[in-house]
Design brief:
This protein is α/β, with parallel strands linked by helices. It has a single domain, classed as Alpha-Beta Barrel (TIM Barrel). 27% of the residues lie in helices and 17% in strands. It has eight helices and 16 strands. Strands 3-4-7-8-11-12-15-16 form an eight-stranded parallel beta barrel, surrounded by six helices. Helix 2 links the parallel strand 7 and strand 8. Helix 3 packs parallel to helix 4. The protein is globular and about 60 Å long. The chain binds flavin mononucleotide.
Length: 321
């Protein structure tokens, strides 16, 4: 039997060789890990969040460990889109693995401008919008927590680019479904879920919060149940592909996310402990398909979702004379 088909179509021509990606902010620009990781065997690379202007990031301390995870407040440190293109795109263009540029901004115009500078650049396979950023135009409210703002920024970016467009959902909302729908209706090709959960940690003195920015984003195994719930909810209300992120540390996590409707997963925080994990997961997923005797990993997708209302009975004809 030939190895199972692991390829995944995220729309608009973005076909990944397999469904295991690395998450934004945990794999740099891909170049940094070149000596330890077979980068060309990954399904995709989401690079560090990229903004119009260079950013030095937040004041330190910026990270701390938590039970089952970590809290970070890097503050989108990056050299700015022009430097990212100049420094890295040439190398990306030589890779088989698609590189998806994670884009952040403080206004709709910011996002549009960054995306326009990425348009047509060889080596840029797609865009992932990080909309968990304060929207200066709306008094600092995050784009990601408001269906109107999320739809507006997605639509503006959609008009500005023909690149495959992924939009990343925040878990820091009451009901994520209207936001997911607004993003899909605005023309996104795929959703990615989830970004980090907002949290704080205390300094040992207990006289102030530990992180320089006070707030940080919680990631790692601690957030997996939240990510599973959101992927489960979202994949039932949109028709575009959903890519899961949140606490993946082993194949069982990948299989769980596929079962609740994700077509691919991103590995984040676990990379800090073991950068070789994502490539190992590709091999383990191939082995798992062989063990189950399935021709495509796609057979593992959505197995835990309730049947769609109105779908024909899986048992066949139910009306007997
Ligand atoms: C140190 C660090 C930096 C991150 N930077 C970004 C970023 O620039 N843009 C973004 O969309 N997500 C960023 N994330 C969020 C991750 O991409 C991912 O959504 C989150 O960590 C949950 O996945 P995990 O539990 O596997 O880490 C960052 C996460 C960490 C831990």
């Amino acid at each position: 039997m030939s190895p199972a088909d692991l390829s995944v179509d995220l729309g608009r021509g973005l076909v990944l060789p397999n469904p295991i990606l690395v998450a934004s902010g945990t794999f740099g620009y891909g170049i940094e890990y070149g000596d330890v990781v077979e980068v060309d065997r990954l399904g995709g690379i989401c690079c560090k969040g990229t903004t119009l202007q260079p950013r030095i990031g937040n004041i330190t301390p910026r990270v701390t460990e938590t039970p089952g995870g970590m809290l970070n407040s890097i503050g989108l440190q990056n050299p700015g889109v022009d430097a990212v293109v100049a420094k890295y795109a040439g190398t990306w263009a030589g890779w088989k693995t698609p590189v998806i540029v994670n884009v952040a901004g403080e206004s709709v115009e910011d996002y549009v401008e960054v995306v326009q500078r990425l348009e047509g650049v060889s080596g840029v396979a797609g865009i992932e919008l990080n909309i968990s950023c304060p929207n200066v135009g709306r008094g600092g409210l995050q784009f990601a927590i408001d269906a109107g703002a999320a739809g507006e920024v997605t639509a503006a970016v959609r008009r500005a680019t023909d690149l495959p467009l992924l939009v990343k959902l925040s878990p820091n909302v009451g009901d994520v479904r209207p936001i997911a729908r607004a993003i899909a209706d605005a023309g996104a090709d795929a959703l990615t879920a989830i970004n980090t959960l907002s949290g704080i940690a205390l300094a040992p003195s207990r006289r102030k919060p530990l992180l320089g920015n006070i707030y940080g984003g919680l990631s790692g195994p601690a957030i997996k149940p939240v990510a599973l719930r959101i992927v489960y909810e979202v994949s039932q209300v949109v028709d575009i592909p959903v890519v899961a992120i949140g606490g993946v540390t082993e194949l069982a996590d990948v299989l769980d996310f596929l079962a609740v409707g994700a077509v691919a997963v991103q590995v984040g925080t676990a990379i800090f402990a073991d950068p070789t994990l994502p490539v190992r997961l590709v091999d383990e997923l191939t082995d798992e398909c062989e063990r189950r005797g399935i021709a495509s990993y796609a057979e593992l997708v959505g197995t835990a979702l309730p049947p769609k209302p109105g779908a024909p009975s899986s048992k066949g004809v139910e009306y007997r004379p």
